[in-house]
Structures are given as C-alpha cells and as structure tokens.
Write a structure and sequence with these properties.
- By secondary structure, this protein is of the alpha+beta class.
- It is built from nine helices and 16 strands.
- Strands 11, 12, 13, 14, 15 and 16 form a six-stranded antiparallel β-sheet that branches. A five-stranded mixed β-sheet has the order 2-1-3-4-5, sandwiched between helices. Strands 7-6-8-9-10 form a five-stranded mixed β-sheet, sandwiched between helices.
- The chain is globular.
Length: 280
Amino acid sequence: LTVVADAANGMAGLVLPPIFDRLPCKLVGLYLDLDGTFPNHPADPIQPENQEDLRRAVVEHGADIGLAFDGDADRVFVVDEQAKGVSGSLITALVAEVMLEREPGAKIIHNLITSWVVPEVVREKGGEPIRTRVGHSFIKKVMAETGAIFGGEHSGHYYFRDHYRADSGIIAALMVLDRLSRAGVPLSRLLEPYQRYHASGEINSEVEDQAAAIMHVAAAFADGRADRTDGLTVEYDDWWFNVRPSNTEPLLRLNVEARTSELLEEKTAAVLNVIRGDTT
C-alpha cells in the first residue's frame, strides 16, 4: 500500500515514521516536522480546506489511502484512493468489523449522531451496539461500565479498550490499513457496503434561546420517535435528525440522515426552517 499521511506539524509526525518503518507500506509524509506554530495549515482535519494538500498528494502519488491527523493525533480523517473524504461513521463501521473479528460478540460504542449503518453493521457481525451521548467523557465512562472493546464518533475520534479506553487516530488508521490490505480492492469499493444512507454533516445555527428553539423543533416533529439523551433526536422510518445545543456558543448543531439524497435535502430544509424561524 502507498499511504499519504498529513501530520500537520503535530505529534503524528513523531510517531508515524517509526511505525511505518516496520510495515510493508510506502509512507508519503506531509508536514512531519513538529512545529507548534502550524505553518502549513491548522491541525484541524475536520475542516475540508485543511485536507486539500492531502488530497492533492493522494492523486499525485497514486496512493491507496490518505490520512489526516490533528495536533495530538487523537483524531484521524480518511480520504480514499480517489481523494474523496470518508465519513467518520463509515470508518467506525469498518473498524468495528475488524475489532469484532478479533473478539466476536463484543460490545461496540457509537454516539447518537453516527449513521444508522454503525449499529446495523455491528449487529450483522455479531456484536452488541451501545449508543451514547456525544463526547469523549461520556464514551470513556460507558466503555468502562460495559467493557466495550471499541467506540467511534462521527468527528474522527476512535476509542480502544486496550489503549486505556483513550482515543487514538494512529491505532484507528492501522485498523483501516489492516482491513484494506486484506481486502484486495480499493478503499472506495471496500466501503460500498457501508454507504447505505445520506447525511447532512453538522449544520450550525445561531439562536437566542437554545432551549426554546429545541422545544419548537420538538413540537414541529411531534409525530416522530423522540429521544432526549443528548439534545433532541427524532427518528422516522426513513430519516432522523438530532439537534444539540453548543456548550460554548449560542448555537444549535443539526445532523440529519435519510435513505435518499432527495429526502435528505427536503428534511434538512424543513428542520432548519423551524430552528431559524423561517416561515416563508
């Protein structure tokens, strides 16, 4: 495999070279030198603009996969051989499959804004999915209580029981490479069975009163199956959404998933109209 890895001048630059020296892979490293001023781009790979150099390098080198790490390498974002971004939900499903091969029947944690595909794959592979609130403190607590072997978040955090229940972008990347090396097909084809739904990604809206806005949304979608575990989640047979208040800003964060792209567009607009008070 040819692997492009963008360390963003963060800690992955210290760890990746000695790891890849022991692997049958060719590493194309970007910004491996540690530099806390982050001179090339911010060490925040969740922002698409910070993945641009990685995408170009994947194409230039004909790489099989691209990896983008944040500053302390506890997160990783993946692009496939076509330089297309892969959602954290699909990586969670893929790594869960690897972990369940190693420990059949194990418990797997996913937060409530990951795709429906994650619990589906876990059950299909004989595991037990456990749903949690968003955030590392909640996931680590539930991992300790349940003995779950692995946990994943849509935001690129992946947690491993045998790594002190801590999140590690490095270990998650190695799990993906393990699965890819055995598959004998490009990453885009490997992921096809997991691409069952269409997702909006996180959409932020500024609101004056977060609690009141969530109440309006709950009333507008009272015919769905509601869950108040973290903000408000409402599920229907063919789509769902979650709205959560930001703890630091006057924002509501919306995530929507649907079975078709047309339904996703329609329902995302409908929920946003309620959040933002648009009655037109």
